[in-house]
Amino acid sequence: MKNLFKFLVIFFFIFFNKSVYANVTYKEILDNPTDLELNLNYAKQQEKAGNIKSTIATLERLSTLYPKNSDIKLYLLSILLKMDSKIKVDFMVKTMLEDPNTSDETKNLIAELLLDNKFEDKKKKKWIAYLDLKYSQTEEDNISGRTKSGKLAKSNGTTDSEVPFPTNDSRLTLEYDKTHVRGTSLTLGRILSDSSSIFMNLGSNFNTNHKKLKGENDIHSGSLSYFKAFKNHYVSPYIYYNKFNYRMQEDYQIKGMGINNTYLFNDKFNLNYAISYTDNKYHSKPFPLDSQGNQIFVDAGDLNNSEIYAFNSRINYNISNKTQLSSKLIYTNIEHSKKYDSYNSGGLNIMFARILPFGTLKASATHLTNVYDAKKFTVSTMRDRKDKSLVTSLTLTGDINQLFPFLKNINEDNNFFYTLSFRESNVNSNISSYEIKRSFKTIGISKRINFNE
Prior knowledge:
Number of helices: 9
Order of helices and strands: HHHHHHHEEEEEEEEEHEEEEEHEE
Helix content: 10-25%
Radius of gyration: 33 Å
Low-confidence stretches: 1-22, 118-122
Largest sheet: 14 strands, antiparallel, barrel
């Protein structure tokens, strides 16, 4: 650094003399773009003011105008070293060392500058860690699943009939209600190589209803996923675990695993396909027992445990760098403890996504057909259940600053995000008990705390 300091002092004394402290206006530069002393004065003035971009731009222009002047290039190199601009430094050093106008003395000085500044590759951060805090409110117009006809199917084993849907009681059965979700999740990631990484996520959600008591819950979750890119493939296997604690309902846990892959054909088309397995188990309650040690009541697990096998394949088409159209084929097989709740599901999803100045807009429609394996004789002895559903949704997500630019003063890191969505589910069935229409309106906000910054 001593050699660099001496060089700069001599350099500026020769070129600037006492005029180094004189103010130079940008208009003067425009009027005299090739004036060497004037431009050097301006560059130094901008450097002192902290306008490094203006300094670099001026010196790059002078370097082009005076290609044989190594002093200008050395000054520019010293600025780039201060900025830790490795790409530009590498380019500048390569250019100067290959330039026949560069003297041996200058080449030695370049070596000293690099050695004194110890400009070397920064070690890439191997760990990624961030915490997400979120809150959302969802308004649902049919939280208890009241049927379209207001009736429920019922069978006595020989004939089918219908009975009225239970009357609203403001605690267990009601129509409109609000659900509040408060959640947090911690994500830890490890960069294994330039093409692979591993991530772990731990989270908790606490869900409460505005009126209805039954169904409130808290959910604790954890997942582990691995990411690998090779050639045109982007593969990610994963495992996860969720534990549901319900109020006035049975508790259960979910364990699952899966793998998905995205294959890039080109910058317009890519194909994504995924396969997964999910195991749902309800908590066993072995007590009370009779005198022989047998369970008096069948526990919830025997009635509700299930396994889910799912596969989907989606083709994405990038209409532009801001617009995407995708279509997904869906197949799911549910193996339930109760045969009449087991079914095969197949369908199609179409989605349109557009990046707008204030966020990303997504419009989606999903049509599914569910064919059940057996009759539920308490509901109908005559019909094999078959449902057809259409779920449409409209979602807008983005940085809160995109909606309210005046919040930039308190959200300088752009780590506050918003979600606005509307979703409607319309199920048609050949049995009245399952013909249900619902709509959901959600507004949410989240904050990300990045521990790597």
